[in-house]
Each structure stands twice: as C-alpha cells, then as structure tokens.
Amino acid sequence: MSAPSLRILLAPRMLAARTALRRSRTKVAILTLVTAAFWAASFAFFERTLAYFQTITALGPMLTQRLLVMLFVSFFAVLLISNVVTALTTFYLAPEVRLLLAAPVPPRRIHDARFVETVVASSWMVLLFGLPAFLAYGVVYQAGPLFYLGTVATLLPFLLIPAAIGVLVTTALVLVFPARRARDALVVATVALAAIGYLTLRLVRPERLASPSDLAGFAAFLAAFEAPASPYLPTTWAAEVLIPLLGARPGEPLFFFGLLVTTAGVCYLASASVVQRIFLTAWSRAQEGRTRARRKPLLGVLLPRLSRPLPRIPALLLTKDVTVFFRDASQWSQLLLLGALVVVYVYNFSVLPIDDGTPLATTLRDVVAFCNLGLAAFVTASVAVRFVYPSISLEGRAWWMLRSAPVSLPTLWWSKFLVAFLPLTVLGEVLIVVTNRYLGVAPGLTLVFMATLLLVVAAIVSLGLAFGAAYPRLDSTNAAQIATGFGGVIYMVTCLGLIAAVIAIEAWPVARLFWRRVGASPLAPVERTLVALAFGLAFVLTATITEVGRRSALRSLAALQP
Amino acid sequence: MIRCVALRKTYGSVVAVDDLDLEIAAGEVFGFIGPNGAGKTTTIKMMVGILAPTSGTVILGDYDIREAPEAAKALTGYVPDQPALYDKLTGIEFLRFVGGLYGVSGDVLDERCHDLLEEFGLVDRAFELIETYSHGMKQRLTIAAALVHRPRILILDEPMVGMDPQGALALRRLLSALAASGVTIFLSTHSLAVAEELCDRIAVLDGGRIVVVGSLAELRERAAERPDLEPFDSSLEAVFLSLTGTTGGRT
What is the pLDDT of residues A291-306, one digit of tens each? Predict the structure, then answer.
C-alpha cells in the first residue's frame, strides 16, 4: 500500500478554507476591502519615502538599499517568532496530528504536510506587509518584469528558512518542556517583544524626524545600519538579489539567489531529517505536563475580598473569569501590551510642547485636551476589543453550564457587563485625569470629560458583549486570536464610529466652554441651553447604543449553542 | 415531575423533535433511547432550557421552562453528552463555581464538594486543572457538579460514554440510590443494558417521534405485535431494533 500523498494530507485544510470562502462572502468582501485599503496606504507610504530618498543625491541610493535590508531583517525576525509559535500548534498541539500518527503515514510525509501548513499560516503577514513595499520599490526604480519575478523567486526560499528553523526550535522546546508550558512561554515572549518594540519605537521619538536636522539623524542611523547587513545572513542575500534587479547598482543576484535556495534546501532537509527521526518521541513528550494549581494562590485570598461587594452571580463570574485569566498565558500576557499602551499614552502628553508660552502652544493644549477625550475612549476601546469582546467566546463549550443554571440571561449579561465596565472605567478615567493634569485643563472640564467617558465606556462594553455574542468562537481558547477575528474588526470600527459621533456632538459645547474660560465671560442663556442640549444628545446616543447592544447581546446569547 | 407538552423543534424544513408528549412521575427512572439523530439530545436541551422549542413546552416540577426558567432549572441537574468544562479551573474550583450558580454556599457547599469529590474518586486530583483530566474524569466531575445542589430532577445525556467499567458501575448504583431517595431521573443512553437494568419506563424515539413508551414488558408486547418482523428474543436490544425498524441492517 502506498502512503497517502501530500495533497490528501492537505485536503482537509484546503477544503475547509474553500468552504469558509463560499459560506461567508460578505466577510470575504469586507476583509478584501480592508486589505486593499491597507495595501494602498502602505504602498503610498513606501512610494513617498523611497521617492524622497531618491532626491537625496549622495545618500539616497544607499538609504534605499539599507531600507530594503531593514525590511528583510524585520520580516525575518517576525517570521522566525511566528513560525516557532505556529509550528508548536501544527506539529505538536493540533488534534488532527493524532489521526495522522495513527494512520499509515510515514513521518516524513507528516512533516511535509505540517511544514506546508506552518509556512502558509506564518507567512501571510509578509504578503500583507511586504507586497506593497516591494511594489513601491519596483515603481520608484521603474524596474522591469525581472524584478517582480525575482521578488517572488526570492520570497519562496526566504520564507522556507525561518519555517525550518522554527520547526527545529519547536521540536527542541517540546523535548525539554511540556508543550503547554512551551506554548505559554512563547506566547508571553512574543507579546513581551511586541510591547518592548512598541515602547522602543515610541520612546525614540520618531516625531523628531519631522524636522530637517533630525531627518539627517535618521539618515545617519540608516547609514550606520551595518550589523544586520552581515554577508552571512539570508536577509542580506535576499536584498542582494533584488538591488541589482532594481538597477540600483550592479551585483551578483544569481550568486545570492543560489545561496538563498541552497540554504533553504539545507534547512528544510535538516527539519525533515530531525522530525522524521524523533517526531513520535517529541509528540509523546508534548502530551505530558500535569499542571497542579497552587492550593492557596494570592488570587484565592484577594478575589473573595474583591468580589464581596458584588451580587452573587457577578461575584462568581468575576472570581471565575479572573482565575482563568491569570492561568491562561494568552490572556494575561495581553496586559503587557496594555501596559505599553498606557505608558506611551501618558508619555505622549508629557513630551507635548505646551509650556513654551507661545500662542500656538496654548491653542495646541486646548485642541489636544479635547482630542484627549477621544484618545482615552480609543484606548479603552482597544483594551475592550482584547478583553471584553472575547469574553463570550472564552466561555467556550462550557456555555451549557451557565445556560442550564438557574440564572437568567439578563443577569448573566449584567454580570459580564459589570466585570468589564468597572476596570475599563477606572482605566479610562485615570488616563483622562492624569493627562489633563499634564495639559492643565480646568477641573470643571475634566469632570465633563470624565462623565462623557463613563457613558462612552458603557456603550463600548455593551457593544463588545453584543459583537462577542454575535460572532462567537467557542472553539478558540486564544483571546488574542478571537480579538483579531472578523467580529473584532467590525466591533473596533463600530467603536471608532461611536467615539467620532460623541466627539462631533461635544465639539461645539466644549469649544464654548473653552472660550468662556479663555475669554472669562459668562455664557448667554441660549448658549447654555445649547450646551446642555449637546451634552444631552451625547447622553441619549450612548445610552441608546448601550441598550441596543444589550438587547442584541441577549438575542444572540439566547441562540448561542455550545 | 417532568412533562413535555407538544414539544417540537424544527430547523428550517427539518423536524428534529415532532410534537413530543411525555409525563414522568416523581422518583421514576425514565430511559430515553433511539438511534443516532433521533432527536434525543435536542429534546434534552429543550428540557433543560438551553435550546428554545419551536412550539410546545416542558414542565419541570411545577414550573414551565419557558415561563419560569430559573425556578425550573433550580430543580434540575444536567449532565450533557460532552463534558466541556472550564479547563483552567481546578476540579474543586469548578464544583464551588457551579454550587454558587445554584445558590449553595459556605460550609454546606464545602462539605458537599468534598463528599462528591470523594464519591466520584476525584479527591486526589481536586486541586489540579481540569485540562489535565481524562475524558472519564471530566465526565465524573460533570456528574458531581450536577448533584452539588441536590436536584429533584436529574437529566443525563449519555453519561456512560468514556467511563471505565468501575465508573459506569458506580454511576448505575448512584442512579439507583438517587431514584430510591425520590429523585426523578431522565436518562438518555445508547447502552440498552443500562436502560434495561435501571429504568422503570423507557421511551423509544425515532425521527423525532416517540415510537413507543412503557415498561420493558410493555415494550416487548408491542414488539411482538408487529407481524412484519421476525420473532426475536425478548432482550431490550431486540425490542429496540424491531420497534425502530433497524432489523434490516441499519446501524
């Protein structure tokens, strides 16, 4: 009997993808539109940057080439992390691997099938971010078809190398650690790296590049970007293939392409050879890992006190949700990103030029103070999409437990709402108070902003539960994955619309209140009425959305089947 | 104690449960058997209030599941066919959580949790995360959770699946003891031997309709009345096969 072909092994994934595409045409259309918009914006950014570099006669070509190397270095780093995380799932955690192991499929064929899945699952990001950049290079340099062909040919081996390294690293990890622990460690490491990257990017103050003197500094930085351009790295080889094809300078593209292809081949063979020999051992090790919870963890002491003021059901859900949250690395690691977000947010206000006494600075302060309301609401929405939106899906297949218990759906909704609303409100209000202090905003106005934010947060939480119930992913246990799904994107867009509407409604009254403060003149009765009406309208809008969200959530929850 | 009144569930043109009428007395052990896709799980989901019927209703105790769902659910313990639990909780935390949902708290809850963990052989693993439990252990924990509030009605959907012989035997004994103490038991099972051993009455469901309901003796009589079928032995399996028309090789 011959072993099943690679096509047969990959068929379930391909058929599932095809069915998903056919069943959700609207979803595909919206995602295509969003991707096209992203590609257009990304292309415009790279095209303008590269065109600008071209105008710098002495440094231009060198900067363009360095930027290409930087792109490849960034892609390679992200691909490496992504492949390690993905390979852990595709090789050692996916339930279908058990079926493959039980079937008469040679280990080498299992490796090949899983390898292809790993490469595809990890590399879409490069297509999303990379293609507009490479296209921009081609357009700016007016490159011929050979460049575009060369780009495709270069990317193929370029994607294989980190995938093979990822599989090898993952296999080594599961031999040492249980797979669940390895996955947790990888998830935390990935999120921590993202948070550090975000912080670093912000703290180097890229806004300084807006001034000509600092742009020269950036050019100098790029010029000094030597280390990752080592001739032994695949990132350099990939750039060295494309630069001559662009016509930027002569080179030996075939030689470097040969290096890329042979290295990719060797890496792939190494991955296949190792996995072929020790897959069963590594798989067996990956299934181990009994996790014993501590009998008296800190949470066990704190949670009863925290939940005591709450009614019975919200207190129970809070205790359960917080316990699960801190035991699930994919959930608590999101706090690292949240921390980075808050630090950068507050830092942004601390470096604003508002104390130089110029009229521009005064105007800037007033405008920023108003925008701050929108920004704080935006930060709250960003947090909600990671913590509130997934909260229904994270009930998972255990949803039957809540539904069969003598607890009404409205009570469940209120419990979920309270558990999310209280911490989000604290976060948003603290952001408003701290940043308004930096800005020197009058206490009265800060109170107006705080009241508005309270209403907006209620609406954001209600929408989060509504969208979370409407787009449930009960099979997924990864909060970050749930948040980045279709429903999460639509939820975020809706929140942005809500925030924009509230800001638009309050723009005029807030401007009047500012003006009154600056001009020190009282508001006319008509103006006072209009100001009150505007705030009333903001209240009605947010209250209506909160109620609409509640009803929508209740309808979806009633139909939700585990 | 349990009354299904013209209970019906349709999915588009597909009728999953077709005007089902049932009445089960307090303390009775009622067996619910039928081939795959007969509508057993759909019926049970409607009974415990996690699926809305298209029409008809279920009365649990004195409460209509559609009009007073909380009161009806408070009487009921439910064991689903798939023991999906909160994997990141420990066994003891899960039991405490479920007890809390049903309003049991304090020392009473602690005592019951301990007793149930001991009864279901989970004491040693009580402080381990549920994600490390085997299927059978999860099943035992689910049954323990269904009993933590001392329900008057226990509804079980395929509770023996995945259990080892000792676990299955312990469960059979437990169900007998519960029935003896007055708990009404609604048991959906594929194990005809279990139904034969435990149930006072049995309903055979096929295509969403009740084909026959009665004691084992009554079922045998009904099977014997069918002249088109070959005579069989008097086991429940033979009766089941003849009443559901699966004697011709249907699996």
Answer: 555 545 666 777 778 8
